[in-house]
Amino acid sequence: MKRAYITQLAAALPARRVENPAGRLRKKTGIVARRIAAEGETAGDLAFRAAEKLFAAGVERASIDFLILCTQSPDHFLPPMACILQDRLELPRSCGAFDYDLGCSGYIYGLGIAKGFIESGQARRVLLLTSETYSKYIHPADGATLPLFGDGATATLVEGVAAERPGLSGFVYGTDGSGAGELIVPVGGHRHPFATTPVEETRDKYGNVRTNRNLYMNGSGIMNFALDVVPKALAEILAKTGLSKEDVDYYVFHQANQFMLRYLQQECGLDGLPYWNDVAEVGNTVSSSIPIALCELLKTRSSDTLRNIMLLGFGVGLSWGGCVVDLTHVQ
Questions:
Q1: How far is 34 from 110, CA to CA, in rounded Å?
Q2: What are the residue ranges spanned by the domains of the chain?
Q3: I need a surface site. Which of 134, 141, 225, 317 has the fewest CB within 10 A?
């Protein structure tokens, strides 16, 4: 049986770079600048650009059996963006395609889906795309949330490889829907439609403004959630894979912000171990944050040295997921 491995990775960021104001928030979060989608530039456009990078590198379009797209900022309510991209990318009509709506843990879920398709014999090559333009949800006067989120997309090729050891392993997942309101855009779906829901503007004690049509995030609630679930998920992944903390070549968590990542590093007992924490130029790109980090990691380390990489995503949902990936087959 062939095992699922990541063999290609690419990222696409908007051209527009927006620098955060110097000050306490920038110092605390470590986010110096973010890439922000232009007017009329959509998540579909960014996903297209990321996928085209793989094809430009030599991946054959006709070899793609399945296209999976993770996004919470789709071009349309329907049809699925993945179906539009199948045509736009000139993939074969025999290619299956669907979207799924998940945020910061979404990349892990996508890898799990791809592994299932490949190792059950349903597909040979899966193109996993992530793409987010959260900036379009944020009020321009919300100084607490605006400096955190950037836009971006990634493309990951997952394919079957004849190998003795798994390329994707130790998957853990979790959900706490009771915390759905901690990170939410309240208005715009069928529960509270734009047409029938009055605009309500709020201003907090720091002067940050948002309406019920904008992204709301309870930062302290998300922080407490992450501190609760991430150490437990890490321990579960190690138990499932039989690895020790020192066996892991690199830890790549969801790139929320520098403060949260440092805190999680301490809480998980990872001080002194290889741990990715680099949000300075992109910020929190939601489902794209982990694969963007992997792209940057591969610029600093040869893929043949990255045999056990632990990935952990956590956030909107509330949802979390993690796994170990072997990047030694990335070209």
A1: 25
A2: 3-161, 168-325
A3: 141
